[in-house]
Amino acid sequence: MANEVLIRNWALIAALVLGSVVLLFVFWRVYLESARGKVRAGARGLRSHRRNLKAAVKAEAGAFRRLNKLERRADAVKPRVMGAAHGQLEEARARVKIVRDQVQIAQASLRDLIRAEIPPKHQAKIERRYLGTLDDSE
Question: Is there a single domain that holds both residue 64 and residue 109?
Fold first, then answer.
């Protein structure tokens, strides 16, 4: 009996499955365009920039340690190697500065988005949730 239902109504079942997929896609797009979806997307971007900052700070610390290690043995280290270590440290510091700026821009962007999309009654709570305190950028 179940086979007969499937055989007779295969087109209806296929249309139902296709319609469900389209409906899910529409709901997903509506969510992404909602205030909550926009804020969450901004928060994801901010988290990504904060992860990049953490990695850049770690790379800077590694370059600094390597340079200190080489400076302790300066009499046995080639000038070319010492110069390369200095260059790596400067590049790491420049990257940290760039990524810090990106974090600040992402924070300001998210703050503006919260103030534009979220009702004033909930803004403070949402800002605390996604931005935390202002000095937690590191």
Answer: yes
Rg (CA), the chain: 27
pTM for this prediction:
0.74
3-state secondary structure of 134: coil
Using alpha carbons only, give the angle 129, 132, 138 rounded to the nearest 5 degrees.
Answer: 135
> Which tokens hold the place of 113?
């988005």
Q: What is the pLDDT of residue 1?
A: 66
Question: Based on the structure, what is the number of domains in the chain?
Answer: 2
CB atoms within 10 A of CB 46: 22
State pLDDT tens for residues 5-64: 778 888 888 999 999 999 999 998 988 888 889 999 999 999 999 999 999 999 999 999
Residues 58 and 88 in one domain: yes
Residue 66, Cβ density class (10 Å: 0-12 exposed, 13-18 middle, ≥19 buried): middle
How far apart CA 4 and CA 7 sit, in angstroms, is 5
